[in-house]
Amino acid sequence: MKSEYIDRPAVLAEVNAAFYRYEQALISNDIEVLDELFWHDGRTVRYGASENLYGIDQIRAFRLQRPSQGLERQLENTQITTYGDDMAVASTEFRRPGSDSIGRQMQTWVKLPCGWRIVAAHVSVMG
């Protein structure tokens, strides 16, 4: 891919807006927005800190069952890179108040007819 197709300002701005909208929904436990921003498909994958979720139905069930407290976190080293007009990868580290652990999150975003959606995600925590 030619470098002029990577990180086009308008596309990067769109993905940044979607990423930070997701982050706000995550820390406020806005399940409706969290669900909206994942691709509604059986091929969507989310690997969590202690769970492997395959398909939007498993991701939804997880969201409904997880605790709604203690979701605050501080992002660090966030890197969002877009490739062309309809694909991006977002990587970030996070820390939760009162914890020395470093969390890591990666998301693959694709622009679909309904807008930017997460098609794959991975969350892990380093000790």
From TrEMBL:
It comes from the Bacteria. Transmembrane segments: none annotated. SUPFAM superfamilies: NTF2-like (SSF54427). This is Oxalurate catabolism protein HpxZ. It comes from Serratia entomophila. The lineage of its organism: Bacteria, Pseudomonadati, Pseudomonadota, Gammaproteobacteria, Enterobacterales. The gene is hpxZ.
